[in-house]
Amino acid sequence: MPDEPPAPPANLPPEVVDALNESAPERLRDVAAYAEALAKHKDRETRLEDEPSDNEIDDRADDLPDDVPAKATVTIKEINDNRYYYWQWRDGDTVTSKYKGPVNPEEEI
């Protein structure tokens, strides 16, 4: 008696199962390779979205000035080999920055 085909995952849409069942072995291998590469890519995108950039400070400061919106982030800018904190936010197509203070290397993340 020939081996039975594998059972598809329960959460796989029926139209995908049907398309795979109708595919030749080589096409299935191509789909598998593409699906694995796409999954890795999407995992990486998700990780990058979840991680703060190196120039952003995770903790929101309690000293947010009145003229800086709550959506602003703290960014580190290097100017003439000196590092400074700036509040930075987007207003439409414009990115606005406001000086916050110098970076103390002992306090830097």
From TrEMBL:
Record-linked InterPro entries: DUF6788
Biased segments, Basic and acidic residues type: 41-50
Skewed-composition ranges (Acidic residues): 51-66
Stretch list, region Disordered: 41-69
Domain annotation DUF6788: ranges: 68-107
Domain of life: Archaea
Residue ranges the record marks as coiled coil: none
Pfam families per record: DUF6788
Protein name: DUF6788 domain-containing protein
Originating organism: Natrinema pellirubrum (strain DSM 15624 / CIP 106293 / JCM 10476 / NCIMB 786 / 157)
